[in-house]
Amino acid sequence: MEGQIPERWVDRFMPLLKEDLVYYIQYFQVRNARNQYCPVDHAYMMRFTAHTRVHEVNSISDGFPLYAHAVVPFEVLRSRIWITEYLSGAIISLWPLDL
């Protein structure tokens, strides 16, 4: 499910959220998903409000997934050219990046 933080609440919530951590989020608004460039295939999305509460979860089982993804065949990606409903992409290189 996609989540959004409205611009007016970014300064409040961004310091509370860190990459690679798990959170329990309460009191958010449930809305219909966007019609264009949807990053996930889900009918609804969550939106933070003034009442939203964020709690870090410290006890996580080893089986908890780190990443979620759906591999899409190239034929499906090609069929989505000029279609803006989904946010689709393709891996164009498998070589390590020299950063």
From TrEMBL:
InterPro entries: NA-bd_OB-fold (IPR012340), RFA1B/D_OB_1st (IPR003871). Gene3D superfamilies: Nucleic acid-binding proteins. SUPFAM superfamilies: Nucleic acid-binding proteins (SSF50249). Residues 1-56 form the Replication protein A 70 kDa DNA-binding subunit B/D first OB fold domain. PANTHER family: OS03G0429900 PROTEIN. This is Replication protein A 70 kDa DNA-binding subunit B/D first OB fold domain-containing protein.
